[in-house]
Amino acid sequence: MAQKEIIRFSQVTKRFGRTIALDNIDLSINEGSIVGLVGANGCGKSTLIRHAIGLYLPDSGTCRTLGIDAEHLTGDEMVQIGYVHQDGELLDWMTVKQHINYVSAYYDNWNKEMQNNFVKQFDLDLKARVGKLSPGKRQQLAILLAICHEPKLLLLDEPAAALDPIARSRFFDLLLDIIQTQDRTIIISSHILSDIEKVIDHVLIMDEGRIINDSPFDELLESFCRVKLTGLEGNVPIFDNVVDQQRRGKEGILILKNADRTTVQNTASRYGYHCEISTLSLEDIYKLIINNNLVVN
Amino acid sequence: MKALNANLKIFYQRPILYLWYLIILAQLPALIISAHDINKTHNQIGPMFHLVMLMLFGLLVGSLQKEIMTRPVTYCLPGHHVLSNRLIFWLGALFTLIPIALLFNEIKASTDNYMLVAATVWSVGMAAYYLSVWLSFQEGYSQGKPCLVGLLWAIIFMVIFFGGHTKLWLVTVQTPLMVLLPSLIATGFSHVYLSRIKHIRNFCGQNIIGMFYKWDMRKVTAYRTAQATEKVRHRLKISAFVEQFITAKMKNCPVWKKKALLGFIYTSFDRMFIITQLDAVVIMSLLLISFGYAFGRIHANIPAPVASMLDIFYIFPVFGAMMHTFPSHSTLHIPASRKDKFHASVASAISIVIFAMVFVGILIGLANIIKPYMPVIPPHIINPSDHSVSFSAPSLSHIYIIPMLMPLGFIASVLFNNNRSKMMIIAGPVVFVCCWFYVMSQTFLNIRFAVPAIFTITWLGFIIVLQRRCMKRSLV
Fold first, then answer.
1. Average of pLDDT values for A94-110?
2. How high is the pLDDT of residue B304?
3. Residues B403, B405, B408, B413, Cα dihedral to 10°
4. What percent of chain A has pLDDT over 90?
5. Which of A74-88, B11-25, B431-445 ranks highest by mean pLDDT?
6. Is the distance from CB of B125 to CB of B98 less than 8 angstroms?
7. Is residue B136's pLDDT more than 50?
8. SS3 of B210, please?
9. Where would you tag: which of A87, B159, B237, B441 has the fewest CB atoms within 10 A of its CB?
10. A188-201 pLDDT, tens per residue?
11. B143 at the A interface (CB within 8 A)?
C-alpha cells in the first residue's frame, strides 16, 4: 500500500535578494518518516522547514503540507504540527510555567504527563523567567512546547544545537520514545550528525539551496564502504568507484561508492592482501559528498 | 591593528553616524550667526548652540564607547579599556575648541579677561559634554535607567525656557572663576568616574542598545527582553489573574480563530504592561506639562493659528504604533493560520488604539482638570519675555486624532518590519509630515466629512497593507 504523503515540494524556488535559498526543490516526505536534514550553514535547511509550515512563501513552485498548500494551513492542520525554531523565539517575560500554560491552552490534546516528564528530564525550573534561561534551557523549553501536543508532523530546526552532551543524549532518548508512534513524521535538521543518525531513517543532504541526496538512510550507508587493505606491496589493486584513497606504507584505505563487497573481498584476496570492509558514519559520508561534489541521486 | 585604529574605525564605518555628524555640524552655522548677537542683545542663544553641539557630540562619543566597552576584547586586551576613556577626554577636549574658536572674537569684545573667559567656556563645554557622555552610559542596558537621554533634552529645554543660557553667559563673562572651578571639578570627577575599572567591568558582555542601532529589531528585542525580565519582579498581581482567566477561556474555546485572537491579545498586552509600566506615565506627564507651558508661551505671543499645535500631543501614539510588532510576525509556533494571524493583528491594532486613547485621554483629562490650578509663570522668570505664561492643555474633544492617525504608524510597522532603521529614516518623516499637515490644516478638517474620510482612508490603507503582508508575503 502506498504511504501517505505528508510534505510535497514541487519545483520550489526561493530567493532572498540575489541569494538563491532554495533552488528548484522537488521533495516528497511520507507519513511515518524520520528525516534527517543535513547541510552546511546557509544551505537552505531552515528555509525549507519554514516553507513547510507556511512561514515563507515560495517565489515559484508549490509546497503542500498535510495535503494542502502550506500557505493555507488552518488551525486544524497547524495543531498537528510541532515546530522548534532555530532561533527559538519565546515569550521571554513570562515564567516557564506561564509560558507552558499559555501554549498548552491552544491544544486540547496537550499531554500533561509528557510535559511533566520533560520538565523532570530537562530539569526545568518552572518559576524561572524564560528570558533568564540559558540557551540550552531555552532550547529544551522550545522542544517541550513543540512536542507535548503530540503532533503528527514534528519539524525540529537545529533542536540540539544549544544543548550540552548530556541534555542532547536525553533529548535523543526522548525522541526515540516519541518515534514509537507509527504515523508520526519528524524532520530534524542538525549539524551534529552522530546524534541524528541514531534516530533517522531517511536523509536529505542540502548544498547551496539544492537537495543533493534524498535517500533512505540504510541505502545511503550501504552505498559507501571503507576498505582497509594491509600488507600492500607495490600498487593498490584497481577497484571501481573509488571516491577517496589514502596510503601509508603497507596500509591503504579506500572509500568506495556502490561497490559490491564480495567482489572487493575477492579482488583483495587475489592479490594476497588482508582486507577489512566497514561502513561509514553519516558524518564521513556527508564530508565525502560535499568535498567531492558527489550527487548521490 | 592598533587599539586606537580599531576604536576609531567605528566613527567612520557606520553609515548612520554621518547623519549624526550632519546634525552636529548643523549647529555651527547657527552658532556663527548668533555669535555676533552676543554683545548686542539680551538673548545670548549663541553659547547655547555651543552647549547643544557638545552635548550631541557627547551622546555620540559616549554611545559608541559604551558599545565598544561591551565587547569582551575591550576588557580583556591590555590597554583597550584605558583607551576608551582617554579617547572620550581627548575627543571632547579638542571638539570643545571649535566653538571657542568661533566665539573667540565675541569673547574678546565682551571682556578684558578674555583668555580666562575662553577657558571657562571650554570647561563649561567639557562639563556639558561629560554630562551627556555620562547619561549615554547610564541608559540602554538591562540595569540602566530608561529615557535618561531624554532628560538631557528636558534640561536643555528648561534652561532655554527659563533663560538659563543668558544668565550662564552673563555669569561666565562677569565672574569666570565662579563657573570655571565647578565645571573643572565636574569634568575631572566625570573622567575619573568613567575610568574606574568597576565601571568598565560593568559593561563587559552587557546586552546593550546603543543610540545608533535603536531600530535594529533583533537588538531592540534582546534589550527589551533583558529589561522586561528585570522589571518583571514588579509585575502586578493582577496579571496572574488575567493569565488564569485568559488561558481558561482559550482552553474552553472551540474555535481556532477565537483562541488565536485571545492568545495574541493576551501576549501583546502582557508584555506591554511590563515594559511600559510607570515610565510611560511619567514621560507622558512630563511631556504634557512641558508642552502645556511651551505652547502656552507661544500662544501668548502668537495667538490664533498655533492654538491647535497642542494637538501634537495626540500624535505621539502614532510613533508608538510604528514600533508595534504584530502577531503575524511571530515565529513562536501557535496553531493559527495566516488568516487567523491577520485577524489577530487587526484585533491587536484596535486594542492598542483603544489602549492609547484611554491612556492619553486620562492624561489629557487630568491636564484639563489641573489647568486652572497650574501656576502662571511671571515674565521675570522667563527671559526674554514680556508676557506671563499660563499652562495650556489640549482639548479632549480632539482625541479622535489618535484612532484617525495611528494606522499610519501601523502601516509603517508592517511595511518595514524587518528594517526598522529604514522605517525611521523613510517612514518616520513621512508619518510626521502627515501628522503635522493635519495639525496645521484645521480649516481643511472643518470641511464636512473630512475627518470620516481620513479615518476611512488610514484604516483601509492599514487593512490592505496588513492583509497583503499576511496572505501574500513571507511572515518572518
1. 88
2. 46
3. -60
4. 28
5. A74-88
6. no
7. yes
8. coil
9. B237
10. 998 888 888 888 88
11. no
Residue B203 confidence (pLDDT): 76
pLDDT computed for residue B442 by the predictor: 63
Domains, chain A, in order of start with CATH, read 5-208 (3.40.50.300), 221-291 (3.30.70)
Report CA B281 to chain centroid distance, whole Å: 15
Q: Does B376 touch chain A (CB under 8 A)?
A: no
Nearest one of A255, A264, A242, A259 to A286, comparing CA atoms = A255
Q: Which three cell numbers stand for residue B56?
A: 550631541
B226 pLDDT band (50/70/90 cuts)? Answer: low
- Cβ atoms < 10 Å from Cβ of B76: 10
Give the span between the Cα atoms of A72 and A61, in whole angstroms. Answer: 15
Kindly state whether B222 is in contact with chain A, defined as any CB-CB distance less than 8 angstroms. Answer: no
Q: Are A144 and A118 in contact (CB under 8 A)?
A: yes
- Nearest Cα residue to B314 out of B367, B357, B278, B354: B357
Please report the DSSP string for B84-128 in residue order: HHHHHHHHHHHHHHHHHHHHHHHHHHH-S-HHHHHHHHHHHHHHH
| A273 grid coordinates | 592482501
Please judge whether A93 and B229 are an interchain contact, meaning their C-beta atoms are less than 8 angstroms apart: yes
First to last CA, chain B: 38
- Rounded to 5 degrees, what are φ and ψ at A27? -155, 140
B339 reaches A (C-beta below 8 A) = yes
Q: Which residues pair with A82 in a beta bridge?
A: A154
Cis peptide before A216 (omega within 30 of 0): no
Backbone angles phi, psi at B207, to 5 degrees: -90, 95
Angle between helices B338-370 and B256-301 (to 10 degrees): 30
Q: Is the pLDDT of residue B270 over 70?
A: no
pLDDT in tens, B342-388: 988 898 899 889 988 988 888 888 888 888 888 777 766 655 556 67
C-alpha dist (Å) from residue B464 to B150, B408, B410, B467: 35, 12, 12, 5
| Whole-angstrom Cα Rg for chain B | 25
B277 neighbourhood in chain A, CB within 8 Å: none
Each residue of B420-439: b (16+ CB within 10 Å) or e?
A: bbebbeebbeebeeebeebb
Q: How far is CA A179 from CA A22, A34, A96, A194, A281, in A?
A: 28, 8, 26, 18, 22
